[in-house]
Specification:
8 strands; single chain; 160 residues; globular
């Protein structure tokens, strides 16, 4: 049985209907510094995001760029809110394997970029939650290539 597989919460991805309004709330009301803004291109992967620092983890605010965007589809089905929780792990292969043995299904393979490896679970039908496993070996942020590849795999699986 897998004991304590997660080192920490790496980030929470929160789907929002209006990124600018969300930034104002998180920055001005919650006093979380804005670390960076990003834009991911693509019909289904298109999103604008803002990374906010929450101390030992990050909050990534995400807004779809079109109705076909996975983020927009998520909001349409579930409403705005936490779209996924990313857990940092030490060994992504063994953690993924152990969680799969416990019944967790995955939507993506393990995708690698320099200093960063990631995989997404299928959305849990009980809680509506999707989980990301992330192994960091030097990269503190996010890689555009990984983000695009993750969204492409999620699109193939019709997961959002």
């Amino acid at each position: 049985m897998l004991q304590h597989p997660f080192l920490r919460i790496d980030h929470l991805a929160i789907a929002v209907a209006n990124l600018e309004d969300a930034i104002v709330f998180y920055r001005d009301t919650l006093k979380l510094p804005l670390v960076e803004r990003r834009e991911t291109l693509g019909k289904h992967s298109g999103m604008r995001s803002a990374v906010m620092s929450a101390g030992h983890f990050q909050i990534v605010l995400i807004e779809g760029t079109s109705p076909e965007s996975q983020v927009s589809r998520y909001i349409e089905r579930y409403g705005p809110g936490v779209q996924h929780v990313a857990f940092e792990v030490e060994d992504i292969e063994s953690t993924r394997r152990a969680l799969a043995e416990n019944g967790l299904e995955f939507s993506t393979d393990i995708l690698a970029a320099p200093g960063l490896r990631q995989t997404f679970s299928k959305r849990d039908q009980v809680s509506g939650m999707m989980y990301e496993l992330i192994e960091r070996t030097g990269e503190e942020g996010f890689q555009d290539a990984n983000t695009t590849r993750l969204f492409e795999e999620l699109e193939k699986a019709d997961a959002y």
